[in-house]
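Task: sequence design from structure.
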């Protein structure tokens, strides 16, 4: 044994042996490389989320911006939006805009966000301040409640801020290149501040025209475009309900559970109180300052409410559990066998209710939370494992839906929609008569001399005339509901000119002549200049930001590999998908 070890020791010290081993290793790597046939760069492209300016974007980088885009939406609307194919498409577009904008910021050499900038951004938020200073308790409450409800942790929030601050630096850099011409601002100021006096005719809908419409004319309207009267897709569902009120009495909570709820939801048990602060030391004439601060209500004061809340929450949870158990009864087993809705309802001692047939937008008087109910109903399929839903939460209980039948959209016969066609024909006749009279009024005003009054011109046509005075800035304060429509149209015309026909907010058609137009005084113009300058700047910056975002994702600069693969694999007419138990609708338990 000792001899073998000494021989092996001498062998590994031999340069010849190491040379042979080195050759074998090189051959192995060359063979491996020839088999894979891909360089490191090609492998990076294969796993990339997409290509930006011809360079692969690692999936980790895309995922970071994807999460930050979701955080931005959640913070903006106060909840995470419901998942859907359309939302996912828009979210990926927003994510790629973030990725490309960040690349652009780095290419311009903009400094990366520091920890100090993140800290300043957080401490500078008014929501996290108390008496002008950063309050750690308020921020901790925000992290625990707001971020917690959105499913966002503190590290994700900080990373979102880190990227957002860098993108804001890019926005500032872009906006610094934007120039607004003084003439453009002055022209806008003049348009908004000029005083106008308008005489105008108001032409209401001509109801007399509708009275003469016949069924034959309704038939002709239908025959022109039968598809306009398409009966939309409908579904009929049966459902069972697990009312929350049935389980309230059986729910009990301990003092420890109530105390835990109290401590975890401090923000719900606080109130604002006024506090009198004495003047600073050495100041004798100053009045005491009064400020407001949050005060936590004692547990004993609110424990009754907490027990009631826990009881309601427990009842909802119990109803959700029972709804889930009932849905499991409807699920096929491994052999494909399953209970019918009637069998499952009998086994659970539940009554079956029916809704429909109804369309996606149709009101269902017996149900309060119609959108959730209809979304779920239309997501059901005809296969055994698609025919029922999980428990969905309504206003008064949990619901489990079962698809009875699906009626596809169809083009009806005229006799089925005769009344609808007649109503459409009457509306069309009204509109044509109204537009005809409005055109006659405008032609009469355009031909008449400017000195001739509008009332005298249109009186033979049997049209009412009115007068409006003011400017665009004060239009919304007018009692005339059509003031803004008229004055904005008048901005494009001089005194004596006839404005284009406008549709009023009350459904009437308006034909106006500018009787008088004069500019505002110099003081008013100077006062408006800064406001208009800022407004024009914002509008141009918004347009620039939109065009810049579109430029970053131009087809020749950008490729979303996942979206491209999905579109290639997608069938021409995708089959109806079963409702995802976790996604449809948003508030499924």
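Answer:
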């Amino acid at each position: 044994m000792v001899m073998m070890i000494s021989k092996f020791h001498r062998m590994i010290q031999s340069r010849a042996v190491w040379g042979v081993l080195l050759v074998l290793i090189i051959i192995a790597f060359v063979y491996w490389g020839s088999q894979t046939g891909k360089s490191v760069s090609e492998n990076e492209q294969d796993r990339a989320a997409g290509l930006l300016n011809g360079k692969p974007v690692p999936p980790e980088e895309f995922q970071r911006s994807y999460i930050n885009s979701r955080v931005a939406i959640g913070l903006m609307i106060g909840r995470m939006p419901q998942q859907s194919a359309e939302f996912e498409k828009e979210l990926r577009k927003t994510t790629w805009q973030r990725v490309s904008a960040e690349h652009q910021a780095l290419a311009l050499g903009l400094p990366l966000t520091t920890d100090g900038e993140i800290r300043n951004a957080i401490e500078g938020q008014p929501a996290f301040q108390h008496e002008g200073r950063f309050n750690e308790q308020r921020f901790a409450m925000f992290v625990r409640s707001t971020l917690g409800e959105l499913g966002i942790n503190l590290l994700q929030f900080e990373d979102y801020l880190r990227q957002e601050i860098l993108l804001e630096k890019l926005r500032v850099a872009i906006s610094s290149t934007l120039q607004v011409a003084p003439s453009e601002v002055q022209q806008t100021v003049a348009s908004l501040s000029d005083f106008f006096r308008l005489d105008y005719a108001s032409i209401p809908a001509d109801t007399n025209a509708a009275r003469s419409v016949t069924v034959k004319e309704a038939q002709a309207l239908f025959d022109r475009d039968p598809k306009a009267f398409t009966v939309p897709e409908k579904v009929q569902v049966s459902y069972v309900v697990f009312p929350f009120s049935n389980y309230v009495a059986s729910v009990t909570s301990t003092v420890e559970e109530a105390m835990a709820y109290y401590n975890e939801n401090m923000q719900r048990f606080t109130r604002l109180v006024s506090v009198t602060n004495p003047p600073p030391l050495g100041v004798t004439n100053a009045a005491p300052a009064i400020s407001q601060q949050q005060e936590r209500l004692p547990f004993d004061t609110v424990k009754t409410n907490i027990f009631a809340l826990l009881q309601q929450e427990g009842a909802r949870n119990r109803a959700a559990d029972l709804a889930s158990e009932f849905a499991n009864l409807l699920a096929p087993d491994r052999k494909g066998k399953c209970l019918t809705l009637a069998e499952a309802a009998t086994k659970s001692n539940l009554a079956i209710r029916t809704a429909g047939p109804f369309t996606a937008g149709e009101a269902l008087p017996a149900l309060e939370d119609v959108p959730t109910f209809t979304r779920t109903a239309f997501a059901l399929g005809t296969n055994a494992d698609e025919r029922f839903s999980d428990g969905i939460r309504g206003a008064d209980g949990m619901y489990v839906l079962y698809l009875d039948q699906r009626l596809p959209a169809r083009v009806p016969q005229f006799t089925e929609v005769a009344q609808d066609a007649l109503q459409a024909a009457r509306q069309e006749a009204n509109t044509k008569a109204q537009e005809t009279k409005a055109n006659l009024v405008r032609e009469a005003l355009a031909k008449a001399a400017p000195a001739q009054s509008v009332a005298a011109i249109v009186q033979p046509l049997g049209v009412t005339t009115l007068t409006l005075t003011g400017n665009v800035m004060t239009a919304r304060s007018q009692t005339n509901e059509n003031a803004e429509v008229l004055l904005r149209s008048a901005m494009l015309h001089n005194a004596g000119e006839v404005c284009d026909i406008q549709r009023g907010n009350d459904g009437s058609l308006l034909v106006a002549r500018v009787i008088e137009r004069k500019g505002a005084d110099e003081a008013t113009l100077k006062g408006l200049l800064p406001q208009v300058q800022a407004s024009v700047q914002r509008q141009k910056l918004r347009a620039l930001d939109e065009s810049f975002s579109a430029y970053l994702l131009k087809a020749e600069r950008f490729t979303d590999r996942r979206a491209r693969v999905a579109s290639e694999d997608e069938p021409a007419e995708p089959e109806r998908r079963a409702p995802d138990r976790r996604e449809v609708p948003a508030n499924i338990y």
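Confidence is low (pLDDT under 50) at residues 1-9, 29-36, 564-589.
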